[in-house]
Amino acid sequence: LNQDRELTFEEFTIVLAKLTDDAHRISHGDDRLQLLLFQTPQTREQRSELEKAMDIIIDVFHQYSRREGNRDTLTKKELKLLIEQQLVNYLKLVKDRATIDEIMKDLDINKDAQISFSEVMLLITRVTIAAHEYLHHIEDQQQQQQQQQHLKHQH
């Protein structure tokens, strides 16, 4: 994004979100293409870890989007359930209705009171970036503690 010819983790997740959104669109498109790309056992077995992760994201989205209303968007109730069951460890504090309403409002770019797959990818991207930053923060803290302990033992 910043034209430096290198991908930061944030830029990487944005690219991955776009690719996953494209894969989701393809999965709803031409039946022959869908069969070729998504349904043959040989292809699934040959997929890379990232491709398998993309498949899982699409599958999880559909587990919730097909519960009520449009089968390819999330209602507020479906979004709340997805957050509570699938992002339970990353979004521990998101329990109250006001927070869910705020997330829904933030994600619902086209203001149709439904969350599309690409809109959910915004949430997943943001949570992934935050988790990545948190892991680095924890790693930095551990290194500081190790350095402090090492200095104590030297004196």
Automatic annotation (TrEMBL):
It comes from the Eukaryota. One of its GO terms (molecular function) is calcium-dependent protein binding. Residues 95-130 form the EF-hand domain. GO terms for cellular component: cytoplasm; extracellular exosome. Pfam families: S_100. Keywords: Calcium, Metal-binding, Repeat. PANTHER family: PROTEIN S100-A12, S100 CALCIUM-BINDING PROTEIN. This is EF-hand domain-containing protein. It comes from Spheniscus mendiculus. The lineage of its organism: Eukaryota, Metazoa, Chordata, Craniata, Vertebrata.
